[in-house]
Amino acid sequence: MTSLRERLTAPGLIVAPGVFDMISAKIADGMGFDALYMTGYGTVASHLGLPDAGLASYTDMVTRVRTLAGGTATPLIADGDTGYGGLLNVDFTVKGYEAAGAAAIQLEDQEFPKKCGHTPGRRVIPMADMVKKIKVAVQARESDDFLIVARTDARTAHGLDEALRRAEAYAEAGADVLFVESPETVEEMRRICATIDKPLLANMVEGGRTPILSKAELEELGYKIAIFPGTGFLAAGAALRRTYETIRRDGSSQAIAGDLYSFTEFSKLMGFERVWAFDAEHAD
User: Fold this and answer.
1) Which keywords are on file for this protein (predicted)?
2) 4-230 — its CATH code?
């Protein structure tokens, strides 16, 4: 299988849907994507029912990385928040995510506890401190195929100039992919791509601060990766609300039976075919 690093050098945009549990991951895994993105927001919401505000621990998240990466074949880009602490924590986190099977880890320059990138009140650590984190992350990995994605959240509170200054410093420190979070216009996105001479990641959050662009538009600007972290769980939430409202209203699922995933196909997706074959082989 082509590694994510190899895919970075090939033409075209890498499109990575957000996955947040094994149902979303298994569905996306069979659809031919070049990468999947383990969204911190969605993973914390689905696993703990909590906001993405630094409440999940390293242990919570590395366990989810191991489950998602172990149950899929597509390279997984995994949200590693701030590295869950200082430099030693970053070292431990990078080693843990790589051993758990991720293809890349995303680290950000927010203060701990962090907040979701398109929400207010984000504060960033000094640039020099994040440069040290990136250098530690690069040294900690076992394989160069394990990518370090460096994210800066400076744009919202400190402006685009500061965000670009940080992104360039993180590139110099050895980050493989740069992620300037929440630019607010297409022109800002164009300036980011014109300034940074390393692969760039665009964060497509419906209802967020950044314009949602087409694949062709993102490629024209110069982005290499586009993640869609919230699209899956927003779609699932909308579908579940409609479904449960119907059941509550009617006391039955008859009206929506045609809209549901086939139970047989869903069972196959979850691996029941092997169970059926095993039972048949070992039947008395």
Assistant:
1) Lyase
2) 3.20.20.60
